Amino acid sequence: MRMVKSLLLGSAAGLVAAAGAQAADLPVKAKPVEYVKVCSLYGAGFWYVPGTDTCLKIGSYVRVQTDYNGEGGGVPLGMNDAGTETAGRMTRTDTSNLTFRTRASLSVDLRTQTEYGTLRSYIEVGAELTTDNSAATNVPFFDRGFIQFAGFTAGKIRSYFDVNSFAPYSYSNSRISGDTGAAGIYGIAYTAQFGNGVTASLSLEDGGSGGNGNSGGASGARGHLTQNLSGVSSVAAFAPAAGTVTYDNEGWKVPDVVGALRIDQAWGYAQVAAALHDASGGYYTTLGGVSGLGDACGAGTATIGGANCVNLGHPGDAYGWAITGGFTLNDVLGLKGDQFGMQAAYSEGAAGYVTRATGPWVAYDGNSVGIAHTQDGVYVTGSGIELTTVWGINGFFQHFWDPKWRTSLWGGYVENDHNATAKSFFCPGGSTGNPAAGAVTGVTVVGTAGTCNPDNSWWQAGTRTQWNPHPDLDIGLEVLWTHLNTAYNGAVVTAASGAQAPLATVSDQDIISVYFRLQRNFLP
Prior knowledge:
By secondary structure, the protein is mainly beta. The protein is built from three helices and 26 strands. The relative contact order is 0.14.
């Protein structure tokens, strides 16, 4: 009996030992894999970053666009803010009617829920190849980069002054609106929520951060466009757009202040907004009536936007302002997806809030040329800054024929007006008769009759039809008519000198542009 009990105990011990040995040989069980989970809080395309409570969306688009009578980026040929034609001439050798642009963009949207609401950061960067009348260029771009938290938004944003954007309805780079949506603007804003879609925003924005001293150029996304006409002959004032317009700005010292009240509902949205804009100028550049001394700053002769002539003094600070109101209606007349919108804007000394056409126009048609330019204000030695009035109105309508086909109609009008004092700065010889002979940037005024008047205006009207064979693929064509009204008239020579200088008459101009686009979108 004892023998049997010993055998049973020994066998059990052996089995336990064997089982323990086999268990030691088994692999350690791996931790469960943490799969990516869909984040449904913010719409399609978001997913949780593994190991965090942050939701991420990555988007992109690739665009191929060909322009006829355009500047490569959608600007009508002749709206010469890129300075792409030689001395403004449009000839067989100086001008390319066909241009194109290829653009690729990548966006990253990160959102996290906190006790103060959503913490969000967003960035959009990319690169583009453009061929226009100057050259083919490869450049990177940075359109957005901002942080949102507890009602605050800071970084490169769309201005809170803006109401409607033409980007969803057109391919051209419209000049009847001052909307900053395309490239963004630096700003810091706070938005208060009142419920039922009603919000109020206060924003401090870039009104000309690059416009210091006599640097020239339309600086900042809104532009700082104060022009110094001290000691300028009337020929230079007559046709500054035929070469370049030099702005003489004070350096950026205060941001633009923007306030907006908005309502968003299922029917659409509506907004009113106002802005305060610094339009202060640089220094005087002549001694004001003292002959033979030039500008007393080492240049030897009077100049536009010369050296920083601290000893000559400067005009007092000047501030412009702008107001706007607009709306967009959804499902117009009960038609699913159809939209209709309008916006009006008025400014004094803040032109960039009404239009992005803040560079010179030089539009040719044979031996006639249209000339125009835009300023916040102008001054001469001893004067204050005379602010320019710029106002405009625009609108659009989009109709869906079916889920794959849509057509939009859009257009608008912008007018630039100068008071009598400002006109006298441009036209020291008076408004009648031809301006004094002379030359400026390859342009000479000749003839016996003409009118010197810096006022101008323009119309734009376009239609775009788009086919979406797939929801993420846009294929479409747009036709755009641009009409420039110029109050100048007279005769100009459009080359520096010699027999190759064609004689042109200043008059109103019409430009017909055509744009074709192919674009692949992914989670825009």
